[in-house]
Design brief:
The complex is a heterodimer of chains A (358) and B (304).
Chain A lengths: L3 H5 L12 H9 L17 H46 L10 E2 L7 E2 L2 H32 L2 H16 L2 H27 L17 H25 L3 H9 L4 H30 L2 H6 L18 H9 L5 H35 L1
Antiparallel strand pairs in A: 1-2
Chain B lengths: L4 H5 L12 H40 L2 H5 L15 H33 L3 H15 L2 H15 L6 H25 L3 H9 L4 H29 L3 H6 L18 H9 L4 H32 L5
Classes of the chains: A mainly alpha (358), B mainly alpha (304).
């Protein structure tokens, strides 16, 4: 398409990052050497064979580059379109967008919405899930890469991956209808014994179990396969020589893990956890099902209800029919997008930095 | 001086290997126990979730009407009917998404592996694919809403859902294809170049066929994942209890949407449909995973 480098020289020389570029171009179109291209019977030195090769390459290269540009443009377009839709509503907002604690956007003439409560619930439920999932994910990754016998490590790993294949709506239904009643006695016990601490104070929802507590546990199960998959990959790449050196010095299995596997894979594990966090922040339907809506403001307790960015949007969006109300929810979506963007970019940064060091 | 048997049996030097001390042995055992328990903990929800769904939903699925009838004309409390309309919707939306996302995803991966090198564009593409991987499904749905409905003024439709699913499927296809293309040995490419085959033909005739097995697996698995997405269908299409084959117009059901609708149906019929749809969804995803495995076997390059 519009790639100046390809049109500049003979076929292939424009491949800046191509390891075989120049050498290949010589082989394909060098008429002096007497090598003809097998797909054209044109005698050496004649133009048609040359243009044919060039055109096919140019089109294919253009398509590939175009697709790459498309992806970059797509992410930019997501940010731009959401921003354009969100700004009029935020301007029309009668409350404070950043510090408001209620989200009333049903009436386009009386918009009054703020994201503070959504943000607090989203962050609390995601961090709670992360705190639960991180140690378990670490344990599974170590078990699968270092402890499990080689023959069973693969099928066991497949079982963990199966968790990621279960649709989140099913996790949501299971969480509310099956898990929440089972957890209820434990939740009540926590409230009784640790109720003086704000995290465990009795909550503001009437429906038993429709709380941040249940939601966080379900979310932890859902991000577990992400954390495990990436940590597993990193731990499995620990240099064999280092492990064997540690074993030769008489280290126990645990000491091998602590002294070679862990230092090597620490950064990968941290970034895996952050990717899990990114997933948790954006999880929609499971939380929509589990978390009970409540008119009261969020008190910070694990036994509160409320709504995250995603669940709030999912709950209210289907009935919307005017752009101003939709814009209010799109503004919330934009904040969520920025939040996940920052978390994901930070995760990549952690990996890139550690990779540079290693 | 008498030499006793005891002296003869005693080693001349202290043994080189000292037994592992109790505390080290204890810590090692503790760690082994902890990681094993961690793995077992993860199996609990897996078995529990799948068991729950099967126990509650298998009854309604084991009925031929479930696979051939819709819920058209049935009241919420009436038993009977099936999920045919929702199955059709899920498959349609998923397949349209795959038709759009697969070629783009493969071309992006080809760009990254064969053309991009270490240029700035290729680095930003890699970064953006990573970002796209992390885009929550609800944000993808909002984006499609902003473009398709707010700006273009088109109605809610199943096609809009497919577009949102494309955003979710694309990065997964790129990632898996890229991985597969990268492990194609350079020898194959060089052999092809040495025969004078142009680069694009080398890619389409040598590189992609070699990587095809893994690529197909990745694509089918990605498709299986997006078919269970609920957020886009909630926002971008309305539920219909009847069969609709037109993806561009009108309401269309899908299994996740059917589940969210039947969830607010407090009758026994509602619960049956809810869990029946859950079983069906898991079943469809499982079938696609099996297809992926079969495709991988069938298209693997012959090594002998």
């Amino acid at each position: 398409m519009s790639d100046p480098t390809t049109t500049a020289g003979p076929a292939g020389t424009g491949d800046a990052g191509d390891r075989w570029g120049p050498a290949l171009a010589d082989t394909v179109v060098a008429p002096e050497a007497g090598i003809s291209t097998p797909d054209s019977a044109t005698p050496p030195g004649e133009a048609p064979g040359r243009t044919f090769v060039q055109r096919g390459d140019r089109i294919f290269r253009g398509l590939a580059t175009g697709s790459g540009v498309f992806v970059v443009a797509l992410v930019a377009a997501i940010a731009v379109f959401l921003l354009v839709q969100a700004v009029p509503s935020v301007v029309a907002d009668q409350g404070n967008f950043l510090t408001g604690r209620t989200f009333d956007a049903g009436d386009p003439t009386k918009l009054n919405f703020g994201i503070l409560d959504l943000l607090l619930v989203t962050v609390e439920v995601s961090l709670f899930a992360l705190v639960l999932a991180m140690p378990v994910g670490l344990g599974i990754a170590l078990f699968l890469t270092q402890y499990a016998p080689r023959q069973v490590a693969r099928p066991f790993g497949y079982l963990i991956d199966l968790l990621a294949a279960v649709p989140s709506i099913i996790f949501g239904l299971w969480g509310l209808f099956v898990l929440a009643p089972v957890l209820q006695p434990f939740a009540l016990w926590l409230q009784d014994t640790l109720g003086w601490f704000f995290l465990f104070s009795p909550g503001n929802v009437q429906i038993a179990g429709a709380t941040v507590f249940t939601a966080g546990i379900v979310l932890a199960v859902m991000i577990l396969p992400i954390i495990t998959a990436i940590s597993r990959e990193v731990f499995a790449r620990t240099p064999r020589a280092q492990i064997e050196a540690a074993l030769a010095l008489g280290a126990t299995k645990w000491e091998v893990v602590r002294m070679t596997v862990w230092p090597f894979g620490k950064a990968g594990y941290v970034s895996a956890a952050m990717l899990g966090l990114g997933r948790a922040l954006g999880e929609t339907i499971a939380l929509t099902i589990i978390l009970a809506a409540t008119p009261q403001i969020f008190g910070g307790s694990l036994f509160d209800g409320g709504a995250t960015f995603a669940s709030k949007i999912a709950l209210s969006f289907a009935e919307l029919n005017n752009n101003l109300s939709a814009g209010a929810f799109i503004a919330a979506g934009l904040v969520l997008f920025v939040l996940t963007f920052v978390v994901n970019a930070a995760a990549r940064w952690v990996v890139a930095r550690s990779g540079a060091k290693a | 001086m008498t030499i006793t048997d005891r002296d003869l049996e005693r080693p001349a030097t202290a043994p080189a290997f000292i037994g592992i001390s109790g505390s080290r042995r204890f810590r090692n055992g503790l760690a082994t126990g902890a990681v094993t328990v961690a793995f077992l903990i993860a199996l609990v929800p897996l078995v529990w979730v799948i068991g729950t769904v099967l126990v509650k939903g298998l009854g309604s699925v084991l009925n031929s009407a479930w696979w051939s009838e819709s819920l058209n004309g049935l009241l919420a409390r009436q038993e009977g009917g099936g999920a045919y309309h929702a199955i059709v919707g899920t498959l349609f939306q998923g397949l349209i998404c795959a038709v759009i996302a697969t070629p783009i995803g493969i071309m992006v991966a080809v760009y990254l592996v064969e053309y991009g090198g270490r240029t700035r564009l290729s680095k930003s593409v890699t970064f953006m694919v990573d970002i796209l991987t992390g885009v929550p499904s609800i944000v993808a749905a909002l984006f499609v809403y902003a473009v398709w409905i707010s700006v273009f003024g088109l109605g809610r439709s199943a096609f809009a859902v497919s577009l949102a699913l494309v955003l979710l499927m694309l990065p997964v296809v790129v990632r898996s294809t890229e991985e597969m293309l990268r492990i194609v040995p350079d020898d194959l490419r060089e052999a092809s170049y040495a025969l004078g085959v142009p680069k694009w033909k080398t890619i389409t005739k040598i590189v992609i066929p070699t990587a095809l097995s893994g690529m197909l697996t990745g694509i089918v698995l990605a498709l299986a994942r997006v078919m269970g997405e609920t957020a886009p269908v909630l926002i971008l299409v309305a539920y219909a209890p009847f069969i609709n084959f037109n993806v561009f117009e009108g309401n269309m059901a899908s299994l996740p949407l059917m589940m969210t609708v039947e969830r607010s149906n407090p009758t026994d019929a509602g619960a049956d449909r809810l869990w029946g749809a859950a079983v069906t969804l898991i079943l469809i995803i499982t079938i696609f995973q099996i297809i992926a495995a079969v495709l991988a076997k069938a298209t693997a390059p012959k090594t002998k």
